[in-house]
Amino acid sequence: MPNIRLVFLFFILCTLSIQGQIELPAFFGDYMVLQQNEEVSIWGKDIPGTTIEIRSSWGTTAKTTTNSKGFWSTTIKTAKASFQPQSLSITGSNTKELNDILLGEVWFCSGQSNMEMPLKGLRKSKVLNASNYLEIANNKNIRLFNNARTASVSPSFDVNGKWQESNKESAFSFSAIGYIFGTKLYQNLNVPIGIIESSWGGTRIESWIPKEKLLKYKNIKFFDNLPKEQNKQKKPSFLYNAMVYPFQNFNIKGVLWYQGESNRSEPEPYYNYMNDLITSWRSQWKNKNLPFYFVQIAPYDYTKHRTSPGIKANMIREAQLKIAQDIKNAEIVVTTDAGDCEDIHPSKKEIIAKRLSNIALSEQYGFKDIIYRSPEFKNISIANDQVTLKFKFHKNDFFIQNNNISGFAIVSSDRVFYPAEARLSKDKKSIILYSDNVKKPVAVRYGFEDCFENTLNTNSGLPISVFRTDNW
């Protein structure tokens, strides 16, 4: 009998010990990078009413108490970026030690398969120049957090991932765009870099938006149960709940986003969806101007490979461009020169990552001489059956002479488009169009084809987006 009592007492003590341990989301762990020079948020769980004390190796402290449900949250001031490993000690009902922490710059990457696509490639799709980056991948000052695919009916507390030092193995399986972006920042800033990747291929944007933002849309069906088959879990809000919400306001410098292909069948609401996504994420991170840099979906022959009209993909590209024009601190990478008509996962991830890093370096880190924004259509004028298109250029950019400019089409009131001959104006800031088949032109389209690849070059090397002057 005494032995039974001892076993029972041991069981009770073990249970209390487990229940009384501090719980932290997985991204608060060894090898993490914390955003430098900020009041960074940190939170977790413990026994209700427990005092939580946090001490950092860089000299700052914080103190709070768990609420009636056992949750606690506080902030702690970080220091200037440093390659010196730091530590955090968190004491409540027990003590957790977090070691080999770096203070630097943190970015959050998300979207579907073109963001998720790792340096090793995706099935038959390869990443151009991946080997060059794997050769320099052993870098303990770049840290990677690869969040596993998961879904949830309601907002989750934790995620499934861990921080890792960059090396050939961790980089090989990490987002190519995220990793190359991080490498470019490191090479230019010479501070520790942390990249969080939380993506899932084949997902619609509605999966990444909180439910309260989607309730106004009558066409969206919500689900109360999580399908057992993982590939069917990509329902409205489910990925936001499991792969975005848990990060709450974990301090980041900004967001990189690459998504849109899966919404091409219904492009009309995409502008509003993306507006809602940016607004809701900024609200979650408690930063109404949180940098949000995203990638326009790349050229691909949807008509040939997906039996989907090419114009629908271009309508997604239109919506993405308009978002960049309308929302403060939202910038777009145009990809009309970085696609592949035969592969929806184009290999030119390095080009995209470099352009994203150029935006960040210029807008967030003071590299003001970088031209990072593609020229944008400004206005149209028509005279003597010729069309003149004026463009808005970033800084001192301009078009480069090319006798084989393609992709422009003009139309008269009969709404039949014909390819147009194109030439540059003398100042290389405008395009002049003409077609023998079109008298009294009324509208222009650029790149509205099944799969369009840019031939209009600029001094900066940046292409222009597809666009149209009509709304038919």
SSE arrangement:
Blueprint: H1 2-19, E1 33-35, E2 39-45, E3 51-56, E4 61-65, E5 71-77, E6 82-91, E7 95-111, H2 113-116, H3 130-134, E8 139-146, E9 163-166, H4 168-172, H5 176-189, E10 193-199, H6 211-214, H7 238-244, E11 254-258, H8 270-284, E12 292-295, H9 302-306, H10 310-326, E13 330-333, H11 349-365, E14 376-383, E15 386-392, E16 408-411, E17 417-419, E18 421-424, E19 430-434, E20 443-446, E21 467-468
Parallel strand pairs: 1-7, 7-10, 7-11, 8-10, 11-12, 12-13
Antiparallel strand pairs: 2-5, 3-4, 3-6, 6-7, 8-9, 14-15, 15-19, 16-17, 16-20, 18-19, 20-21
Structure in words:
The chain is α/β, with parallel strands linked by helices. It has two domains: 103-365, Rossmann fold, CATH 3.40.50.1110; 377-468. It has eleven helices and 21 strands. It has helices spanning 2-19, 113-116, 130-134, 168-172, 176-189, 211-214, 238-244, 270-284, 302-306, 310-326, 349-365, and strands at 33-35, 39-45, 51-56, 61-65, 71-77, 82-91, 95-111, 139-146, 163-166, 193-199, 254-258, 292-295, 330-333, 376-383, 386-392, 408-411, 417-419, 421-424, 430-434, 443-446, 467-468. The strands form four sheets. Strands 1, 3, 4, 6, 7, 8, 9, 10, 11, 12 and 13 form an eleven-stranded mixed sheet that branches. Strands 14-15-19-18 form a four-stranded antiparallel sheet, with no helix packed on it. Strand 11 (254-258), helix 8 and strand 12 (292-295) form a beta-alpha-beta unit. Helix 5 packs across helix 11 (349-365) and helix 8 crosses helix 10. The radius of gyration is 25 Å and the shape is elongated. The chain starts with a helix and ends with a strand.
